[in-house]
Structures are given as structure tokens and as C-alpha cells.
Amino acid sequence: MKKRILALMTASLLLCGVLPLGGVSAAGQTLVPKNAGEKITVYGRTVYNTAGALRLFWTNSGFSVTFEGTTLTAEMSTTSIAANSMAYLNVYVDGALIPAKTVKLNSSNATYTLAEGLPQGVHTVEVRKRNEAAYGGSASVTVKNIGTDGTFMTAPAAPTRKIEFVGDSVTSGFGNLITDGSGDYTSATVEGTMTWAVIAAKMLGADAQVLSRSGIGFCRRATIHNTTDNSFYDYYTKTAALPSSSVSTVGWDFENNPSDVVVINLGTNDNGGTYNGAAITDAFMTSEAVAFLELVREKNPNATIIWHYGLMGSPRAAALEEAVELRREAGDDKVYFLLQRQFNATTEGTGTHGHPSVQADINRSEDLARFIAETMGWEWDATPMLAAQRQWSERYNTAEQLSQLTPASAQTFCNALLAADDLLAADDADNAVLTAASQALWKAYAERRLIADVSGEYTVLDNCDETKGVQLGGTGKKGFDYTDRKEGEACLYTGGTGTVYINHVNSYNLQLPADANKWFFECWLYIDHPERIPGEACLEVSQVVDQSEISWGLNSLGLQAGWNKLQLPMTARPAAMTTIKNVRLFLVGVTAPVVLKLDYMVIAKGRAAENVEDWSAAITAAEAYLAATSHAELHAAVTEAKAAVSQADVDASTARLQAALEDAQNHTHRYDSDCDTDCNGCGEEREAPHKWEDERDDFCEGCGAVRDVSLLGDVNGDNEVNSTDARVTLQYAVQKIDETQLDTLTADVDDSGRVDSTDARLILQYAVKKIDKFPAE
Predict the structure, then answer these.
(1) How far is residue 133's CA from residue 61's CA, in Å, rounded to a whole number?
(2) CA-to-CA distance for 40 and 36, rounded, in angstroms?
(3) Distance in angstroms (rounded) separating the CA atoms of residues 562 and 734
């Protein structure tokens, strides 16, 4: 699949202004969508009104046009301009995967500039609706006309592949721009074009036709979220209709708009529903899922159908998979069940009301793309996933954000951004390389370590060495473990089946600081069989149980078998919660025996560590060594150091890291002097490095070599251009270092008169031989 150059890679998501009506130049052209013919391409289930205007109702619906000119505008109206339900449109220019701007429709009717200041010539602009419709009053959009200062041409063809997604909030991107679980619903925090569904479709070269509404289910006649009118079965065949909103109840023309694949992501809301006053049973859910699959098959006789489930937990996975198996037994061999990995609240962040964040969407998009590719025999391309990761991480690439990081963290993050840019600008990287770069960028973003995280300001809530009003529940043994513990003399343990718990009720009276929302609850938690955690399993701290509390679902914490160090943000603390009196750890409905242990509970402002200078320096030195030479033990030591939490962790991991680095250096090559070419350990010869008096000297005191101090791109003056020069240049561009720490003349490789991230990217491309000279040469 041909990769697309990201011409607008570093563009910010800008909110556009409103122009007066009639803002299109008289010398240009204006299109009414319904009458535009081949000059407009429309995406999604859409409808036209009597005036020929295009109604964008569903998430990711939109249009594209090609024109010769410099500017594109559109007159549009919207159904809501309320702050929490405005419509948002993403604008993509000339095939870029990252939007050039986001248009916020803050007027009931206005003409908006979609693109301006483009070079005179032929351009393609694609517009996609970011938010869902019908939920919480979220707006739909009517595109009345589209104008340009030039001439409209034949519009680009739509992708030949089409994937239809039928889902709920997980498919809509409900609150996915949030990462700390805070806030209530607002359309501003919904990014429906960066969901697992849309990204996966792009990776497969397909258009994503999204039909989704937050809170909806599929079981007919069931009460779901306090209403019986909440089943997608009743709306699937309509063009643009949902509970509380009926833009068009006309049946959708499936015959002339066939889908290659239909992905159903429903069941999360049905799980908590009732039927005839009783909780929905697995058997009822299976029968209703069979009915929905039959309906989808009737309307899509040739499509592959996939029931995708599990991102927010999988308590009904068996019931849904049974429905798929029943359909296959009935002769439908093109229907599949895909159990998706639940999102990890600790490493991926939590959206509003416990939903997945964009990071979780990005990570799961590959799972679905691979599954569809294998099922359909299609090729897939990881470029859109890396582009999405680059876009998501870019918001932290500012001087203010980088200044808050430890030096090692900032350097790792900047290196990952540069590597991503280099790959996205290339056209020959394979999926393995692109996927690895996406994961590395996510890791660098997820593991960013703030200077404030190591302030050492913390309070030990309980060392779990004594009773302190603890209540232990389970059918197995319970008490204290004095051998397998993490801190102090002992830890608490319990186990068995049924309801297994470790509760401290009215055990504490810890007054929380005013900025407690920026603090963390830390503890050690042991579980021997994390796969046995039931759907109802939580860790909670509270002032009043079940009223004023913060809770974390155990299924969203990515627990591994054995001890897990948890550092859980307290961002969701209710304003009324000023004291911690209780801690509860419980599993309800355990069917196979588990063992739970709890040790050393801490309330910390960031990570509980004080001295990190040696730790940071050791990580920086080790990563610099690993950039040129692989070494398994040193790599493991770096991983351990980055996972350090307490001061003891920091000290121990620093010592191991320093020892591992010294061992790697000593056992690889040993030289008598800095300029020696003969290794006295193995006899291997090298190109001699040079020892200079100072950074600006041109005479090596070791061997007498002379260097050119004005080598373009050699910003640190070591007589070569490498990734270190790119990192130093980027650090200068974001004001992490000043002009005393690099040569600005050699850093300005594009001869723009300033040193910025473009120079850093060019230097990295030169270092890895992507280019053989700089623009300034």
C-alpha cells in the first residue's frame, strides 16, 4: 500500500474563525452538494435536504473535493452551539493523515474557512465529522454550499474497500481525549476520527462507515440505561436515525452501498440491562445477538461480519461468542468473534467515565487490522497507526511540557518523536519497523517522568505489618505473610473463591492536601491468577464507603501474576473527599481460587523518590551506549531503572545500571587511550576517536588530528554528524538548552535563519543516510 507523505506533520489542531456570509470571491466557484455530481465525494450514511444541502449525522461522515486555487470555504449550519454539544470537523489537506485544522461550529449558520493560504495549484481537501450525533444533544451538521477562489475539479475517488462499524460509546470515541478519567460528557472531548475503528480502516486502505451512539445496546425490548428504546436492532436499517433523533428514517440502500466487512461492537451496555424486571441472562443475550447477526446478514449478504468485544471488559464474551458459533453452525461461515484486549487504565489512561483514551484506541487498532487482513487476505499498512501516535504525542512536545521532565525522560521522548518523523517521511519502511516505532513512541510518552514525580513528598498510609482494623474475606487461608512480602516485616494476604477481600474500614484519618488530585495512591498488590479476576473487582480509597471515594477496576490495571507495583492517579477524587478513612480491595464472584496480597500503601505527590540525579544520568549514559551497540543485560537494567518508584527502587536500579554499563564497556572493547585504535581486550581495530582540549578546539591532544569545526550539522563539535546532534538541536529548538551548548550556525542546516525542529529532523535524516546533503549546502 502506498504511504502518504505527511506534509502537515507538525501542524497544530487550530480552531478556525468564522467569515461573514458570502465570503467566497466572485471570481471563484460555489457548489451545492446534491448538485455537485462528480465534483464531490461523500462518506458515510448521509442525507440531503430539499435545498440540496448535505446532512452529516454520523461520526466520521464527511466529504472531499479537489480544486485548483488557494482557499476552500463552506457555508454550514448546526443543530447545537451549546458548549457541551458543538459539532467539530477535522480538515485534511492533500492526503495528509494528520488534520491541518479542526473546525468548531460555534454559530448556528456561518461560512467557515476550511483551507487558506495554500500554494496556487491543485489541492484535495477532505472533511470528517469528529463527534457523534444524538447523544447528549451532540450536533449534526448541514453543509449548504462549498466555495473556492479557484475552480473545482473531479473529486478524488473513495477507497474501494468499505468497513461498516456498528457500536456504542467505545466506537464513538466517548471522552477519549481525556486521560485521567475526569469530567462529564462533552463533544469537545470526543475524537471519533482517532478511534480503533477508524485507524484500523485506514491501515487497511478502507473507508470507515461508522454507526454508533453512546449508551446503546442491541437486545430488543430490554431496559438499557432506563429506557426500552435503546436497541440498535430498531435503527440499523435506517439512513440516519437513533433514539431521540430521526434525521432520516428512510431505509438505507444496502444494495448500492455494499460493505466488505461489518464490525459489530455492542454488548457493554446490554450487560447491565434488564428484561421483564430481571437482569439480562447470558441465554437471552445470545438469542438477541443471533437475531442481530441475522439482520446484519440479511442486509449484507456478501460481507464478512465480525463481533468485536472486550475493550471495556468482557463479562459476556462467552454469550456473544456462542451466538457467533450458532450462526456458523447454521451455515454462515463468514461470521467471526474477536475478543479484544481490555484497555489498561494505568499505562494507557482513562477517558471520561471509565472509557478508553485515544492511546488505547491506537493500541487496539493494530489488533483489528491484523485480524481483518488475515481473514480477508488483504494487505495492511502501519503508517496510519504511527501517524496517529505521532499526532497524539505531539501535544507534549512543547518547551513548557519538556521543561517539566527529567533530562533522561525528555531525551527519550524527543528521540522517539524524531524517529517517528523520519519514518513517516520515508516511503520504504515496512510494517515491523513502523509498528516498533509506534510502540516506542507510546512507551516514551507513557513513561514520561516528571521532575515533580521525584519530589519525595509522600505519606505512608499503612505498611501492612499489623492489623489496624483489617477485615479479610475468602474461603482460603488468611492473615500475614512474613516471607513473601515487599516492604517492612509482613504483608496481608487472603484467598479462595466467592467474595475475596482485604478491607480497612475506618482504619485511618489521613487529611488530604488541597492539591490531592495531583497525587497518587501507591501500593504493592499480589495476585497469583489475574486471568481469574471477575468483572466486579476493585481497589478503592474512600472517606465514606460507596459515597465519597476513588475506585480503580482491577481488570483495567494490566495486572501480572505475582507482585505488581501500582501507582494510581487520584485525579477523580470528589471535591467532598478531604480525608482517607477506608481502603478496600475486593473480588466478587470468584469461581476458581485466587490469592491476594497487599503491602505498603502510600499517598505520594508523584513517585516516592527524592534523589534522582545519578539515576537520570545513568539512564542517559546507558541509552547512549545502546544506541550504537546492543547489550541484553544493559537493556534489562535500563527497563528496571525506568520502572523505579520508591527511593529504594531508584538507588538499587541506579547501582545495577551503572554496574551493567561498566561491564558492557569493559567486556566489549578496552583501549589504552581515547585515541587508541587497538583494543587491548580483543585486538580489534577501530577508527580512532579524538580527544579535544575543549568543544571548539580543532587539534586533538591525543593524536594531533585536525578537524573542521564548521562541519554543517555537527552542532556538538565532535567532527561527525549523528543522532546526538539531532537530539541537541531539538533540545535547543524547544528551549531545553541555550546557545552556549551548540553551534547555531552549523545547526541551521536548512538556512532558514533560525534553529527549529525541522533542522533536527534533517540532521537525523542525514545521520541515518536518508539524505546525502542539507538544503543549506
Answers:
(1) 11
(2) 6
(3) 41
